[in-house]
Amino acid sequence: MNGTSMRVVLATVAMLPLTSLSQTSVPASPGWAAAMPSAPDTRVKITEEYAKLVGKDAYFWAWPMMNMYNRRLHFSQFKEISRSGPLMSAPLNQLAMLTDYVDPAERSVACPNQDVVYGIGAIALDVSPVVVQVPDFGNRFWVYQVVNLRTDSFVQLGRMYGTTPGFYLLVGPNWKGDVPKGITEVFRSSTNTGLVAPRVFQDDTAQDKRAIQSVLREVVAYPLAQFDGTMKQKDWTKLPQLPPPPPSEEETQWVFPEKMVDELPAVLADAPPLPGEEARYAQVLAVLKAAAADPKIKQAMTEGAKESHEQLVTPLFQFRNYGQQLPHHWSTISNESAFGTDYFTRTAVAKSNILVNSPNETKYFYQDLDSNGTRLNSANRYTVTFAKGQTPPVHGFWSLSIYNEHHFFVANPINRFSVGTKNTDLKLAKDGSLTIYVQPEPPSDRSQRANWLPAPKGDFSLYVRAYWPKEGVTDGSWTPPAVVQVR
């Protein structure tokens, strides 16, 4: 068929109504659809180059799931709730609570905050459903984050939801047991693996640090078999002390490219494909099957994972490399803890600041640069000025935190790593504005020192949290002010 004839045929087909196409363009053949392959043919030989390509892609989108999987393996080692230097540990399906702000030496989860008292625990819902206790927090802000293997939240527990005190049950995708009397609500996860991370607001005062202790004792989680309908208590000040981990500057490594081929089958089995992911899963599983039989294919997949780690995942640690771009070089995201198939954002968030709350619970704003687009660095001094009435509009609280180049706190003379609602001594200017002074040394003007946010040595980042945000934050009409370098 020559080119003119082909154009005539295409034009004729284009003019046919859809009903005509469905009735005439494909001959009736009962066996035709059945003959179409539904997945890769695992009997065929594949090249190492193809295996490397699949490994590189799979490592990127499965990185958050491997992160969660290895955290579960870590918690599975513990037989009792304990403290290890700045870290807390608990057996699977339990949690451990701090009794004050997180220790600045913590290196388990990047971008912690010193506005709340944290808890942490890994859940294994294939082992047992988990009961989560909610005490009476009164007027205190609180929220429980519970995420699945994909780092997506699957519960709604917090002050913004009007949650009542009681017992809440977490179950896995295949659980079919009876719900005991006394359970207020059941939340079903789409995976068996996940993490529980309560957050309870605390003022930066000695009085509130004492007042919060009684309610913290009832923030407890345990396997369903231990449920008896009574509110259990735990004195978090009396935990066994284990040797502290070696000091580190960077976050604990949870994902290892050299282990991907061995770990990925279990990870994917725990997180069945979302709608539209079936072909992606089939492709990866087919190459994993080949890798199990051929060391060269396994090595090729591993090389792809290593390339992905260096070229794709590592750069996403920098906030400026992802997110919705806002005025003054700030950025944000809007699908936190509900990433679905947004693989890029999910991996970027997991790499840079894993375990973010849902957007109606907390809104996050990230900053690596000053108003001129220059990297924030302790060689300079900066101001962040909120005009009168223009601090983040929230029902809960807000804060401006500072992190070093590794997204962690570094000890400073006044033990301050964030400023915001928790600080009762911040000074407003005569016009009602609030200026935060971000610099390594205290301001020479003593009247400014109450608003000083000490900068760590070298490059650093700023981070605004708006807990239980109001409309101005949720609709995007409010964004943070510029970070201005002071000459």
UniProtKB/TrEMBL annotation:
Pfam families: DUF1214, DUF1254
Domain (DUF1214) ranges: 362-471
Regions that span the bilayer: none
Domain of life of the native organism: Bacteria
Keywords, comma-separated and alphabetical: Signal
Domain spans labelled DUF1254: 93-223
Classification via Gene3D superfamilies: Domain of unknown function DUF1214, C-terminal domain (2.60.120.600), Domain of unknown function DUF1254 (2.60.40.1610)
Phosphoprotein recorded as keyword: no
Keyword field contains Methyltransferase: no
Name of the molecule in the record: DUF1254 domain-containing protein
Native species: Povalibacter uvarum
